Amino acid sequence: MQYIVDLCFGRKRRLGRILLPPDGSWPLIAHASRAHTVKHVYDQPAYALVRDSLTFEETERGPSANKYVADLLYQRAPTDEIYAAIRNHRIMKKKAIAAVAGDSYIPNSSTIGFGGATDSAATAPSGMAMSDNAETEKHEVSQLLLDSMAQRIEHIVRYIQSQCDFESLLNERKLNENSDPTMIVPRNIQYWEYMNEVADQLYYFVLFDAISYKDVHERFYATVFPKDSDIHPGSEARKDNSYIWLLLQLFHIEKVSVGPIRQDLAGDEDLLDQMLQMYNEQQIVSKDAFYLRDLALQATMTHQQGNIRDNQGFKFRHPRMAVVMPFAPVVYQLQQEFGRQFKDENYEQFDGNDICSVMKTATVSQFRQFAVPNSLYTYLVPPKESIKRLQNDSTTYLEGGNIGYRLLDYTNVGGKHRLLQLVYKMMLAHELGPQFQFDGKQPSVREGITCVSPHIVDTVYRLLYNAPYSNELMMKEVLEKLRRCDKVMATGNARFSPATLRWLYTIYQLMNCRLLRFFKYYAHASHLVHHLRHSLVHTAHRQLYSSLECFALCLVNLQHDVGFLQALMNPAYHGIPLTPHPSAIGAAVARSIAYLKPKDAWFECAMLSRNAVMVISRIAIMRGLGDVPGLSLADCLDSLSPQPQYWAPSVLRYLPRLARAYYAKNPRVPKGPQPSVSAAAIRQLIEGRPVHSVMLLAQPNPQAEAGLLAFYAEAKRQPLFLFVVWVLLERLTATHASADDSKGEDGTPPKDGPVLPAMMLVVVRRVLLSFPVSQMSTYTSSLIDFVVGCEAERGLAEPSAATTQLLDDVMFKYHLLHHEHVVFALTRGEHDLRTDRMRLALTRFVLLESPSFTERLNEWHRLDFQGRYWADYRHWAKQETYLTKFPEFFEHEGHLAASNVVLDPPPALSLPIYYENRMVRLLPVLEFALGRLIEAENRVLLRAVLDRMGILYRLHQVPLTTLMNTLFVYFNAPTLHDAAVMRSLSLSLLDMTQQNFSREFELFVRGELSDAGSIDAKYICRMMVRITRAITRHLGKPESDKLPEVHYREIPNPILLCLTECVVELLTWWCLDNSARSSARLYSHSAAAEGEGADGSGRARGPLPSTEPEFRAEEDDGQKRAAEWPLARQWLDIVMDPAKRPECAAGISGASCIHSTGVLANVLPDELMAFPYVRYLADIVLHEPMLQTISGPKRYFSFAEFSRASGKYQQQLQQHQQQQQQAAGGTPFAATTVFNSFEHNRIHGMANRPNTYLTLLHGILHYGGTGTFSALGETIHALAASGELCSDVQLLYLCATVGPALYRLVDHDALYVQILGDLVLIMAQICPRVTTLVDTYTTTDALEQAVDFFCFVKDQFDPGRAAWRRIAPHISALPSLLRYQLQCIVDQ
Question: What is the longest distance spanned by two Cα atoms in the chain?
Fold first, then answer.
């Protein structure tokens, strides 16, 4: 029996090495990993059956909940994502344990139980025990979070210690430049950002009972003094005051301070004694001393002074107080200085300019519970009245100070939490408006103060950025309030109070202009569109709608994952859970969602719906939809607007194939651009309807005005009104021009324009205000089409000067149209801009030549708005200056207000403007227009717009992501294959001082490098090292000290930031490499303008793809060019060669470099790396000598013969196998190292190319989508069709490429069955070529494992009898015994 057990275990072990990858230590990357990456192959129930047969060395490279949480904490992932990862991992573990238990032999006397049952540990593999009890689960989660946090903190502390000099003494005569005798600040202060970050995370988990204070304290003490001895030999080296500083942060949590701390001080004082033992007295007198950290113990004593018993005998009970007390006077001195300055109203310490003053105040915040946050609030909201106005007398605020962002960064976490609570409760949470407390009275609304100070709003976003964990619950509450307001909007007759309207407008501005970076990687970002859905339709207040519309554009532009598409198809959404312990979100519950198309369209605004189409298409291109079964792209597109829009061929060319198929096959989609109304028809309408004459009267005529309003009350007539107004304005302009003797010689009309009838704009305003505000972008588009048609009727190829001047007046003088709506109308994608000279000329005018817009843009340049807005203390002053010169108008009243005309209807409530203006609202529309300009293939216009508008992108909150998205979608666009265009694109969108690009890329942007010729192996190795360090949680010194603070960077996740910057660089080199080949594909606008096309008609020199076959042919050509990209080939060559990989030089070992390539390949377009690397499988299989060997022969095992004569039969098997091996001249399995653990091969000097490639391939497949599986299936199918395989090891190698991905392939029936059929076909092809198959009863090691592989497939991932029937013809071609074995497996 033991022989049978050993035989089965050996086969199970060999099967496990085929089914599991050589190395599965893939990091979980927040916001970049796909849903399936949380469900690791090692956790799958089916694979758990073979895990116990592998060694610890082979399985330790797999996942664990601890690794997942540690990865997410390092990447600053939201807490909801962390809890979701824990829950998903728990679910998979429970399923795996159940699977193992179900396949295990259990004696009758034993019972199986989970979550406390004594036999469960015996039946589950090591490390897989999980519980079902809720309390036990909570304890397990707490322990998991504690382990991950302690590991992360210790890593940071050790890193800071390695970068600091704590051995050399501080020479007080040579203090650091930022220090003074009472506050020592180190030179490398930037390292403390890591400590501020983990302090916020730890504070959150302790505040909400995820971790207890005592557990944290004990873990820190055990880190310094391991439990194996009270005084560890290395304890002195492990001491660090950072641990005490972190514990002090938790003292500001009330339940900690009055709980374990007070109890300890009233008792044995053990916790305090341990803190004294952990204290490192050397640090405070060292060269890199930092008083904020090193005075933590002294601050602790001051903070708890009231709870310490018997102060006189304290130092006798704790002798180590002797090394602490010499610096205690510093704490007292700082306290006195802070109180004196605050009493004297000397608030310079709060502006954050002097880092030394910042540290003094931050130190005081540690030992005075609420002194600093309360003082900061008093500085923001002073007790004395000093009322100032924002834009007018109805928007007033109490003038207060502006707190420096540095002070907020270094203030105690509890102080930040307290300050935000005060601000929110008093200023932003009350339905009646901001509350004030003067003269000791109760907080109440103050008459004459309607709004909050701009500096208060600034403080809110700064606090949210530098303490995102501890303040997250407040953000959830704000979002839930917005959702409730949106539900009220759904009634269609909502009437909000003025205070509520001001609150809504303030919050929308805050989110739109300051919190987009916060929301981009927020756990619930994809569902935030539910929080403003009804408001976008039913909001009647036009100023509020303008902010809503802009925020909706920006919010949709932020989306980067299929979760957004799921949100669109999830009408049952019920808001964000207001709890610090959320239930699982994302992949674990996505499959249970019934995707339903909503009854009503998401957007009535054409601009919003078209923008959403572009975003959904981008997500489909970049992320794919194959990982979300049941989700239909067609349903998502169909739900966006009541009527699907037509898209020009130039736009369809860059949409995904599924989107193109939807627009081609959907009968509701128009077949072309909507025809515009002719000018003659409008003139006839004016003459046929006398009600229009009311606009030309000098005196009001209420009856005629009522008739005009009634005529345009019908929705289908409303677009015509703007046509009528345009024609009337043209007439007045022509009349004025002919009567004006000052007309210029060049034919341009006078700059002051015509004198309009007094009542015209009054009537026009009244009619326009009766139109739905959500339809104004649609009506503007119709007007632009009408203007273009009028110019075409006049026989003009480009707009006349009179037309452009009138358009400028309509936008900026009469305020009838919004500038951003006009830009959208010209670039909305309905017309092919490659051949539309008129629209291109109008686009150039409204963005570059409009006199009024140019004046505003010049003023914007002069004011010099900074990209680092959190550090720009003059931002509000600049905004105020700009709005004073160019005030905002939302109800077409601008010209009338200047004329002192009484407005009827009167203007709506004026809302406070803090951040928004025309320029800010133009930015998301400009981002949309950027894609159309690239599609237009007019490099000259594109460069001019980018160079001119670059100043606006300073306020873009995600410019790096926008650049990456643009390059990703248009990486094959010939427009971008030009060095000058790429340089303009990079300079316009990026603030290079906020990024950490390579030296080569910076040289290119500065114009010192013109092509990708200098990109060599050294550059690739540096980039590989950078990515590898990021994914291995390496803490390194930033290459530039000028980078922003970590929490203010565009992407807080260090891995994602690194990958995004690398993708931008690589796509830039790709575009430069293709510049020569793309010149023939580029449409020649100059030739078209001059009539010098190939056919003499002025058309393009290059082709104009306009049909689906042409689009696909162009895509195929792009894939061929991508497969030949030299940089990708060179990268692969470095990865495959251990001598070239930068492992030793970078201090990086293991498979990290290979995994970094797998990650990078899936954040680049698949055509550039993922597909070529997957297809490289054919080269490995066909040309690697190790795979061309034949494995050792093996005798079939027969249970019948073994049962008759087991000992004799066993000897016969061994003798037969030895004889066959000697005859074959081979080893039992010469290619064993191919399927070894990658780490095992590397350590023992057995590294080989097939094993390395297998590690790389599974990294690519792990992070990739279904597209990579399609490429894998195509490659295996090509190998099967070629008939070139000759070795059973080649077959086994192909099984190893598929084995770890079976759990994902099974969801794609056609591809799965095709791959299985190809593998059986390959088996049939190679069997006649295997010389060791000398008789019917002989097989080989590799063929035996292949049969076991198919047995596993049938048992765990059975595709069904119909699928096996399709494979049956291949099975029938096998040798008789193999055929019999596989047929038995299939027929089970």
Answer: 122
What is the distance between the terminal CA atoms of the chain, rounded to a whole angstrom? 25
CA–CA distance from 623 to each of 393, 619, 650, 966 (Å)?
50, 5, 22, 14
CA 464 to chain centre: 18
3-class SS at 696?
helix
Contact 1054, 152 (CB under 8 A): no
- The CA-atom distances, in angstroms, between 917 and each of 326, 557, 863 are 56, 19, 14
Cα separation, 1092 vs 1085, whole angstroms:
10
Q: Is 183 helix (H, G, I), strand (E, B) or coil?
A: strand
pLDDT for 1059 equals 95
Distance, in Å, from the CA atom of 674 to the CA atom of 678, rounded to the nearest integer, reads 13
Could you identify the residue written with the tokens 């003088």? 813
**What was the pLDDT predicted at 895?**
82
Residues in the chain: 1388
The whole-angstrom separation of Cα 832 and Cα 1088 is: 14
Residue 49, C-beta contacts closer than 8 angstroms, at least 6 positions apart: 99, 100, 103, 1356
The span from the CA of 1009 to the CA of 997, in Å, is 14
User: C-alpha angle with apex 1125: 1123 to 1131, nearest 5 degrees?
Assistant: 105
pLDDT at residue number 1206? 54
C-alpha 635/C-alpha 662 separation (Å) is: 9
Q: Which of 892, 710, 683 is nearest to 786 (CA)?
A: 683
* DSSP assignments along 466-513, one per residue: HSTTTTHHHHHHHHHHHHHHHHHHTTS-----HHHHHHHHHHHHHHHH
Q: Find all residues with CB under 8 Å of 884, minimum gap 6, and list them.
A: none
Those residues whose C-beta lies under 8 Å from the C-beta of residue 739, and which sit 6 or more positions away, are: none
Given a contact cutoff of 8 angstroms between Cβ atoms, the answer to whether 504 and 485 are in contact is yes
Asked if 784 and 816 count as a contact pair (C-beta separation under 8 A), the reply is: no
User: What per-residue confidence (pLDDT) applies to 349?
Assistant: 78
Quick one: pLDDT at residue 914? 95
CB 789 within 8 A of CB 676: yes
Please name every residue paired with 1339 in a beta bridge, in sequence order, or none if there are none.
1194
User: Given its phi and psi angles, is residue 1160 left (phi above 0), alpha (psi -120 to 50 degrees) or beta?
Assistant: alpha
d(CA 761, CA 550): 26
Residue 144 tokens, joined: 């998991």
Name the residue with tokens 């105020």: 880
Q: What angle do CA 562, 567, 570 make, to 5 degrees?
A: 130
Half-sphere exposure of 1028 (CA within 13 A, CB side): 23
Q: What angle do CA 582, 584, 585 make, to 5 degrees?
A: 105
Residue type at position 1190: I
Sites in the chain below the pLDDT cut of 70: 1-3, 56-62, 102-132, 171-179, 228-237, 440, 581-593, 737, 739-755, 758, 1038-1041, 1084-1103, 1144-1147, 1149, 1195-1231, 1331-1337, 1388
**Angular region, 681: left φ>0, alpha ψ -120 to 50, beta rest:** alpha
Residue whose pair of structure tokens reads 């007033």 in the numeric block: 396
Contacts of 45 (CB under 8 A, 6+ apart): 92, 95, 96, 98, 99, 100
Q: Which of 202, 210, 225 is nearest to 149 (CA)?
A: 202
1272-1281 CB burial, b ≥16 within 10 A, e <16: bbbbbbebbe
* CA pair distance 1027, 1032, nearest whole angstrom: 9
Task: Provide the pLDDT for residue 774.
Answer: 93
Q: CA-to-CA distance for 949 and 926, rounded, in angstroms?
A: 9
In DSSP notation, 571-635 reads TT------SSSPPP-THHHHTT------SS-S-SSHHHHHHHHHHHHHHHHHT-STTSTT--HHH
